Each structure stands twice: as structure tokens, then as C-alpha cells.
Amino acid sequence: MRRTRSRRTDPRRAAALVWGTLLAFLATGCIGMPEGGPPSRVEIPQGAGAENLQVRVYPVAPYKGEAPVDLLTGFLDAANADEANYGTAKKYLTAAAGTRWDPEAGVSVLDNLDKAGSPLPEGSTATQVSVTGDLVGGLDAKHSYRAAADGARFQENFTFVKETEGANKGEWRIDKLPDGLITNQTTFKNGYRAVHRYFFGLTDPSAERARTASVLVPDPIYLRRRIDPLTAAAKALAAGPSTWLAPAVYSAFDGVRIVGPVTVSDSKTATVKVDVPDFAGRSDLCQQMAGQLYHTLADQQGKAPIQRLDLSGVKGGCTIGADAAARVAPGSLAGSFGAYQYYQLETGQMMVSPGDDQGHPLSGPLGQPTPAGQSGEPRPGTFAVRRDAGAVAVIGADGRTLQVVGTGDNDKIGAPVLTSRAPQPDQGLTSPSWDGRGDLWLVDRDPANRRVVMVRGAAAYTVDVHGLNGRTVQSLKVSSDGTRVALVLSNPKDNARTVELGLLTHRGTASAPLAEISGLRPIAPLLTEVTAVSWADTDQLLVLGREKEKLQQLHYLGTDGSQSSDSPLQGGESMTSVSATESRVGDTVPPVLAVSDHHIYRLQGTQWREVSVPQQHPALSFSYPG
Prior knowledge:
The protein contains eight helices and 37 strands. The protein has 626 residues and is mainly β. The strands form eight sheets. The protein has an eight-stranded mixed beta sheet with strand order 21-22-23-24-28-27-26-25, with no helix packed on it. Strands 1, 2, 3, 4, 5 and 6 form a six-stranded mixed beta sheet that branches. It has a four-stranded mixed beta sheet with strand order 10-11-12-13.
């Protein structure tokens, strides 16, 4: 039977739900680009959302004489309340069930959550109530979020029995239930906060030592918002990376536990204790652990980041400050030129702009106009600037040749590094993308030899891609840390173009390097017509695409597949490509770049503005470094 509104929903919970709904409404908005013609004024979401929610939700114990369906409602409410040990929620369970139930096993997030049970004949001592709904996503035991497949359904059964003895004799209690928590989207947004823990990217055994600098990679997780989030984040870090990210990273916390609570003083100094017996002679280990902790805890602090972290073991310890932590910061391989904007004119001339103006010609041979068809010169096509701005990868307009051209005044244009035998330009080389260590990645769509390629120096190596299941790689973008790659995949069965995230790992030797992409997972399951993808931060993708039978839009998506904003940015049907960057200049986020109707636009504050180019030559392509 379908339950009616329970009398258990007290004013405190009602207030939490009302405020959560109101704030979610206030946070909605859109950024619009019209279907055709010049872009118009747009509105940016204000981002209030649940981040500012300050309502604590208190659990309520079961009432006497309650029916199973109402008890289940109360249990779900209590389990998702702000109580550290779930003590009140366990009052809804039999003693045996309370011992067996593991609330930390994960979280299932549902839409259209419903509860239903059968009518109870008089004298019944056992019954079942089912929880059903549309599965939106969920957390695993390591706090990692995973978006559910489109159309996924959820159903779990709860077995109730009447207690035969003790203080609850004659009362219904839950005797069998699934581990973990079940919640709806509103309660999840109000009760959990998206944060990150950080792990070091594995070094490449086939690369030169100078190209293997350690840098932290974000591992997005969700933690309970008001249950000692600093200590929870530190313990989640010590527990190790998510199952998905683990093959590409390592942690200094192998086998190490956090001892006691994490504290932050008025001077913004975080203090953490671990169970390392003695840090004497292990200063490198201590500094690595401190670096991981610094960035993990700073991610929790919002606009009041920590300035120093003191880490101590049973004996000894170390301190790390903001400057030292910055050397291993996520995104530090994006390069100091990462916010510079590069675009190529119809003449083949490449321009660079450090800000909002039209910029100036790039140094080196690519900064000169190229007469169409001149022998040996790359004609206008796709390009990617190396993250140190010292070289540019150029794919010719015919899609058949890749050249890597230096940006020095004395550099020359040499022979192609890679050649495709594709019969058509749209079947050839595409989407060159540099990681932060100087390796170049691209796709050859030649029907006779489809492959992903890594270019190191003047040599090209085919990259194994696992888990394609008959799909083909159409384009890619690699993260600056070189551990993750976003792939646009085409499925010949239904012509869907989707985006998935894969892990990049390395093996081999300097003379025979091996690279592979594995662990493919959907980032935006509902988007079936993806046009372009770009890295917008170390943990965030900007995806241009559409859901089935809907308008094309720009979506900010976390690398775990979670939505990074309350609403997408609207993009016109004429928008063909986008670019964003991981780099940040202070707290400033560089503008999104878009091509629409063969013109380039920057998203400036609340407006799309067309990029002014010299001599009125059309700009054919653009890119941030990477």
C-alpha cells in the first residue's frame, strides 16, 4: 500500500527541506547563445545552492504503535540526519539488524522515491516494505560518486518483525535491510558536500627523469556536510584513492591512519596526527603526506584556506606552508601560459592574446601569414600549443599530416612527425592534445587503421584503448597531469556520440615506451550527441552536447560524472567547438571560448563577446595551451 504523509516530519526537517528547495531554485539560471547571429546578454547562475545551507537536521526516534511503512519513512529520515553514529536510526532496527547493518557501505540517490507494502492481516508478525525509485547515482564505500545509466531503476526490500520481548515488545522493527543509505536528490544535496582528496600521479618509467615531476591528482568524493568534515576528509584520504583512480596514482598514506580530530587554529594552521611511529629519517615521506593533507583540507575551507599544516607522528613530524604545497598542487603542470588564448586566421597566421584584446602574431614561423598551397607549409587546420608555449602541434587541413613547430624566432617548419592515410579530411588526424610533461596525444580516424597515438619527441606510438566494445574514438583531451583523458566515442549501432573518461598509464622503457587507456566510464550518460569536450579545471570538464531531442548546451561536469553546476550554459545550434583551461590566474577563471557561425566568442562575465581579429580575416580555430 502507498503511504500517506507521515506525522513524523517535524518542523526542523521541514525547514531543512524548504530551505534546500528554495536555495536550489535561486541557484538556477542559464547562459545563452542564440541559435544564429551575434550572442546576446546572458545571466550567470549565482551558485548559492546548498553550500550556504546552515540548517542542521536532527533525527527523530520511532513512535509507539507505528505501522511498518511509517517506520520506514522515519528510519530513512533518521539515517540521513546529522548524527555521527546513526544511533537514532538504529532504534528502528532489531538488535540483530543493528549489529549487521553497515551504514557506511554507500549511498543510493533516487528520484521519485516511493515506499510500498502489502496490507497487514490481523495478527501479522512479519511483513515486507519495498523502496523503489529512479536511480540517479550513488556513493560507494570510498565516498566516490557514480552516475547511474539512463533509465536505471532501484528496488530494495525491508523486512519488518514484531518484537516479542524487551522494551519494544509488540512494536514493529526492521529485521533485514540493505547496507548503506537511501536518499532522494534534495536530501543528498543538503546533507553531502562535494570535495576532493589528492594523490600523486604515478611516474612514467619510460620517460626522462626531468619529465616525471610529482603532481597531485584530484579524486572527487562526497562527505557528510556537518559531521566533522575536516577529520572525515583526512580519514578518507588515508583510506586511499577510489577504485577507479587507483591504477594511476599512489599515496604516501599506505597503511597510515589519522589519529584524533583534525583542527584548524585562528591563524589558519591545520594540525593533524598520524600513527607513524617515528618520522626520523623519513622527512620526504612526511612532506609528501603533508602535501596531500594540505590540499585535501584546503579544499574543505572554501574562502578561508589554511596557510600552514603541522603533521606529527608518535615521534617527530614536519610542517608545510602554502609556497611548498604549491609546488605539487593539482594543475601545476598546466603551465604559466595556460590562460593565454591562441587562434589561427584564415591566412594560416597564428595569434596569441594574454587577455581580452586581439593579441599579436606568435613568434616563429607560425606567426607569419601562409600563402595557401605553399609547399612545405602547414595550411590552416587543427592545432594545439604545448603547455610551455615552446611548440605547436599542427594538423593540416587535409587531416593527413602532423607537424610540431617551435615558437622561437630561429625555428623552422620541418617534416611531418606523423602521416595518416585517411581518404577524407574528416577521417584523418584530429584533436591534438598536450599533457603537462610534453607528450602529445591525438586520434587517427583512418577507417583502415583507427588508433590513438602518443607522440614523444619525433617518434609516434600507438596507444592501446581498452573497453571500446565496438565504438570508435573521434577526439580526445588529456589532463595536464597526464593521468586522465576525456574521449568522445562514436557508436556505430545508433550513431550516438558520447563522452567517457579513461585512465592513462605508462609502461616500457625509454627506447620502447608503452601507454594505454583503460577504465573507461561515462561522464554524461544522458548526452548522446557530444560535439566537443575541454578540460575546464583539474576536476572538471566542459562538454558541448545535447540530450536526445533537446537543444545543444554547454555542461560543466565533474570527472566523477556529477553535475558541477545547477544548470547548463545554453549553447546555440551553430556552436561547433569550445575551449576552457585548467589554469588559473589568482582566483580568476579564464573565459570560455566558443566558435559559432565561423566566429570566435569569449564568455566575458555575463556576455558572449566576439573576438576582434586583425584585418578582418576570419579566425578558423582557437585553443588554450594543451
